[in-house]
Amino acid sequence: MLDPSGQSVAHALVEVLSRDGSLRRTTSSDEQGRFSLLLRPGRHLLRVRSGAFAPSLTVLTLTPGEERTLEVGLQLAALDEQVVVVASGAPQEAARSAKSVTVLDRARLEAQGEFTLVDALQLAPSMRIARLGGPGAFTTVKTRGLRDQDTAFLVDGLPFHDASALEGDATPLLEDFLLLNLDRIEILRGSGSSLHGSNAMAGVVNLVSDDGGGDLRGLVEVQGGGLGLAHGRTRIAGGSHDGAFSFSAAAAHLNVSDGVDGNDALRKTLLQGVASWSPGPGRRLRGSLLFGDTFSLLNDSSFAVPEENLPVTGVVEARPLDESQVERLLAGQQLDFGTATFVPDLDDPDNQRASRFLNGILQWEHRLGGRFGYSLSYSFLGSGRQFRDGPGGKRFEPDSNTLSDLDGRIHLLRAQADYRLGARHSLSAGYEFQRETFISTDTAAGVFARSEASQDAHSFFVQDQMHFFEERLQIS
Q1: In Å, what is the CA distance from 417 to each residue of 29, 379, 421?
Q2: Residue 359 half-sphere exposure toward CB, CA atoms < 13 A
Q3: Contact criterion met (CB below 8 Å) for 203 and 187
Q4: How sure is the predictor about 303, in pLDDT bands with cuts at 50, 70 and 90?
Q5: pLDDT per residue over 131-161, tens digit each?
Q6: Do the Cβ atoms of 16 and 24 come closer than 8 Å?
Q7: Residue 362 CA to its chain's centroid (Å)
Q8: How many Cβ atoms from other residues are within 10 Å of residue 443's Cβ?
Q9: Rounded CA separation 457/455 (Å)
C-alpha cells in the first residue's frame, strides 16, 4: 500500500466484500504494507482501510489460474469512496449509483455524537423525523414527504419491521434503536420497491453491521447531559490472522431519569453480536443477533383548546398553554386559556410502555467459479410491546388499570443466485418466504380479550443489471 506521498502504509486492513456488501474475507498487511489473498476466479470488490486515510475500493477480475500483483494507493480522507448495496442489491461505489443514495459511515456518526438511529437519519437530506415528545417518545420517519410506512428498514440487507404494526412497517421499533455496532447506514431516497417490497415506495434505510476482522480492538464511551441523561457504549472486534474468522460485539445503554417534565423516565438497552467464518475461498457462514429492551413513562398527547377560545377565521397559530395554567389543569382548578391555542403534553403518572425485540440472522454464501454464486439467508424477528394505563392522568383516562400486549413474530427464508453473463450483464434471481404472526391481548376492568392473526407470503424476483462505458451507465 502507498500513501499519496509514495510512502508505504503499514497495518492496513484488506476486505473482500460479498454481494450484500458485508465481509467475505479479511486480511492485514505486514509492516511493509504487503498482503496476499487467495481468491476464486471472477469479479471481486476489495476495500482497503488504514488509519486516517480514506478507504480505497478496487474492482478486481481474475481469470482461472491468474496471479495478480495489485498496488493500492490510499488517498486523503477528503476523497473518501463509499460502498453502497441498497440501490442495486450488489456492492458498488456510491458515486456510481444511478439512484439518490446517502451513506453515513461510522466515522461521521461518531464525529456528530449521535447515539440514536432517528437522530442519525436527520443528517441525510429529504428525511423528516417527527418525535411526539422528549427522548423515547413515539417517532416517525418520512422520506420525501411520503407516509411513514413507505420507508423500508433493513438490517444487513434483510427486512426489519414489526409484525404487530398495522401497515407492517418498522415505525414501532425505531424509537428503541440505539447506534452501537454499525459500519454504515445506507439511505436510498426514491422508490426501492422493485428490490425491497411495497414498504419501500419512498425509500430504504439499510443498517449495515460491522463484521469486525483485523487486529483486536475495543471502545468504551460514556456521556451525560441534561434531563438526567446518561449514555454508555462498549464495543470489541477482531478476527484471525488469516482472515477466515471475524467477529464483533457491542452493548449500549441509555438512561433518562428526569425527562422534560421531571417524570419521563426512560431506559434503553441494546446488545449485538456478529461472527463470520470462511472455510475456504468463496465460502462464508455468518450469524448475528440483535436484542433491544426499552421501558418508558408516557405523557398524554397534546390537544387543542375549546373551540370558543380559538379564532373564527384565519390561520391558527400554535401557542401552548402557559406553564402556570398547566399546573392548575393538573391540580383540577379553573383555567385561563388566554391566547393559547393548544395544551402541551400532560404528565400521566401511570402511563407506561415496555418493549423488546430480538433479531437473529444466519447466512451462507458460496461462489462456484468466477461467474456463479448463491446465498441462503434465514432471519427471525420477534417483537413485543406492553402498554399500561390507569385513572391517574387528566385526559381520557380509563376508570381502572388496563394492560395491552402486542406480540409479533416474523420468520423469513431467502434464496438468491447471481450469474455474470459476459462483461456487461449481471443476472440475479431469488425466492423469499415470509411467515408473520401477530397476537394481541387486552385486559380492562376484569375483562380479557385475545386476538391472533397470521399470514404467509411468497415472493420471486429476477433482475438483469447491464453495465456500459466502464459502469458509468447502468440499466436494470
Answers
A1: 32, 18, 13
A2: 23
A3: yes
A4: confident
A5: 877 777 788 888 888 888 889 999 998 999 8
A6: yes
A7: 17
A8: 16
A9: 7
